[in-house]
Amino acid sequence: MSDFVSMENAINIGSRLEPFCDDFLIEKLEVSKLVLHHPQPQEIVMTFDKSWEGSTCGYVTVFKDGDIFKMYYRASDYDIDSKTSTHPQFVCYAESTDGINWTKPALNLFDFEGSKKNNIVYADEKELGTHNFTPFKDTNPAVKDEQKYKALGSGEIDGKRGLFAFVSPDGIKWKLLKKTPVITKGQFDSQNLAFYDKVRNTYFEYHRGWSDGDYKGIRAIMVCVSDDFENWSEPEFLQYIDSPQEHLYTNAIVPYFRAPHIFFGFPKRFIPERQKGSHPVSGVSDALFMSSRDGKLWKRWQNAFIRPGLQPERWINRNNMVAWGLISTKSKLNPQVDEISLFSSEGYYTKGNRLRRFTIRLDGFVSVHASGKNGIFTTKPLIFEGSKLFLNYSTSAAGFIKIEILDVEGKFLKDYSAEIYGDSTEEQIIWNSGKDLRAISGKPVRLKFTMSDADLYSMKFAS
């Protein structure tokens, strides 16, 4: 332990939620470790079986907008034998009231084979932007009413190639923001995305590029930032903490909605030289998990977040692609509890092309884990605001988590000890003294956790 910690060098977490997705708050782990968890496959939520859809639909975007959930995706069909597209690429729209059951509304906007009774939300004669049109709702307080929704899509106008910006007042009727690309450096055949970061008050954008230097030819992720969505910084490659170079195709990076100061990403890892079974297109893929506290330096887990699994079709190129967007849905196991839904592609290149929902507990991507032996971990010095502590945790019937609050020199504060067991996404800690935390709120402290057969996912102080 440090002999002295000032207010300036303690980590001020205020009353924000802190997931244990990295070692940012962890000073010491003993017989405990950070572990990656995996989402559970659920039902098929979307089958791309309409005549204007097809075998190669993809690049799905999902987000909540008021009382409804919105989904956008590329509608396309590809004949694997003739190696030709059977119709132009479109952008389609679906919606849901619960994030689980989705409908494809008849928008009556664009003609397909003599009818406008379809869910095509954007089309273009030259297919500008339709390959990877990726919308978001702009949460910038200064956003103009006619630009509340924005999107990026790749294409070319008058020989100028890159990412073009689109805007909409309602997420349904779209128009080109300007006739020149806003980003020109990179490889734009992936799902390129942008969003407004309300914590840092800036726009972030992520797209694919080819690595250079010693890793030339490796698919990688690039980042740009902007104050106005039109003028972007020079793209730079993401940096990783102790991770090897691998082909990363999509990125699905999003501010975590429960802790927006942290970004989560779900890149599709591509292994081009592998082929499981016979298929005209080689390569296999899985999904990874990574997190960042500045959008540029990332902790990327090497073990897969989503494996291809037992379905042979998920061992074909371009499957296991995670849609952009995390949403909160009700648990079927316990409807009183919220969980996180995310979506992944399967059946790509087949007539059964579809989207499957996966679920994971709130904040449940990574935890501090201790097995049957008593594990200990201690936080770095931190400053909090509030009178209560809430934990998201899980134990076995025999397991437990003991919580103690220490001063910065490691001395136990006798009023602040508690032991819990069970499973909760938000349980208030009741201290042995019966006191609350007001006496030490705003002062540097450490938290010590002693655990057995338990996982701790996140913590939050509150008033």
What would you say this structure looks like, in words?
The protein is built from no helices and 38 strands. It has strands at residues 11-14, 18-19, 26-30, 33-36, 40-47, 58-65, 68-75, 78-79, 84-85, 90-96, 102-103, 120-122, 134-137, 149-157, 160-168, 175-176, 193-197, 202-210, 219-226, 236-237, 239-240, 247-248, 254-255, 263-265, 268-271, 284-287, 290-292, 297-300, 327-330, 338-346, 354-361, 366-370, 375-379, 382-384, 388-407, 412-420, 423-428, 445-462. Strands 2, 3, 4, 32, 33, 35, 36, 37 and 38 form a 9-stranded antiparallel β-sheet that branches. Strands 6, 7, 10, 11 and 12 form a 5-stranded antiparallel β-sheet that branches. It is globular, with a radius of gyration of 24 Å. The model has no long low-confidence stretch (mean pLDDT 96).
